[in-house]
């Protein structure tokens, strides 16, 4: 794998390093990163100054003074979080048949809705659980997820109306059922809304996302995007796959033109066979993805308006302020089963939605078991115990805490075990290098939400390089 050759190949820059520090070539003309991978400490050093910086010793001394507190911060983030969110699937059914969906086809086509009474019972149980573990001034989050949650709209909306004072809500939807009334309700209740669209061109978008009879959903998604214009709490998920990989630059142009505030460019997960068939090789996905990021920056510079690519912004934040990250795929153990869990319509609890459809990862049932006990079951422990230190390639990777080696479901199903890497390792490495290059150029804020660092503190600032 090119990763280790790249990373370790960078070692000769600038003299002998104390144990724990390593050089990391970020592909920048002037700067190289000095990283303590275990604690996620880094500093950018001018490559032509590298030897002097090490010889001088000031940076190394500051790192050594702070190392224990960096390690403590990472320990807290990696092993001591409690759940604060639930991916709540109120139905097994979906009105679409997307090529890469991780939910089994039969379940999506013929599955059950959660009844109104059951859904409200689930809300009450979740409320009782979260109020026992979270401070009263923090609200846990429920993300209604799919299959297609809007198919069970009435029960879901009743839960949002009844529990709006105790939870924050989000809905991840394919947008086909987002009529004016639904949008007024969701925006009126301050719900986050995530839509899915894979390409700016109907013929391409339809290749991966379509109805059971093959009909297009492109027009209805566009209508929903236009209806949501001006609402800050919405984003569009674009799943990068073999059908749309050449469309990422036009895609971000399209979303930016429609004033979408944020999007996610997600790598298609290879957990299920459909995902594996949609896989794109690392070099190709990486080139297309970084070109799309470049384009969002050009558009920002030209118009003053950002289209934040949220999954990339999270990587930047994981480098700049590890504990301020918002998404939990890029830390190990990942967030599945420890900072959130997933609830299936029959009450089964899984570490993450990505495991729905993998019965071996069912940890228990919300209506029978105590959530505290489910979190300790072997299927959950298998996921929450997966850490980069136990994965041969990742254990020596300089960016292991800015990547997290996603995804355990993918590693287990596609590559044969929790101690294996998932897909896209080289692309994750490229993403981290790109993030460091932006920081070296001082333009990282252009890729982040305004005010992303409100409430975060700088625990280390070194101006010596
Ligand atoms: S890495 Fe995979 S299992 Fe973990 S949170 Fe992300 S999607 Fe879920
Ligand atoms: S998966 Fe991520 S952490 Fe593991 S070797 Fe690849 S880039 Fe590094």
Automatic annotation (TrEMBL):
SMART domains, sorted: Elp3 (SM00729)
InterPro entries named in the record: 4Fe4S-binding_SPASM_dom, Aldolase_TIM, Elp3/MiaA/NifB-like_rSAM, rSAM, rSAM_cobopep, rSAM_sf, Sulphatase_maturase_rSAM
The keyword S-adenosyl-L-methionine is assigned to this record: yes
One Pfam assignment: Radical_SAM
Ranges of residues in domain Radical SAM core: 80-306
CDD domains (alphabetical): Radical_SAM (cd01335)
GO molecular function: iron-sulfur cluster binding; metal ion binding; oxidoreductase activity
The entry's keywords: Iron, Iron-sulfur, Metal-binding, S-adenosyl-L-methionine
Entry similarity comment: Belongs to the radical SAM superfamily. Anaerobic sulfatase-maturating enzyme family.
Metal-binding as UniProt keyword: yes
Cofactor: [4Fe-4S] cluster
Protein name in UniProt: Radical SAM core domain-containing protein
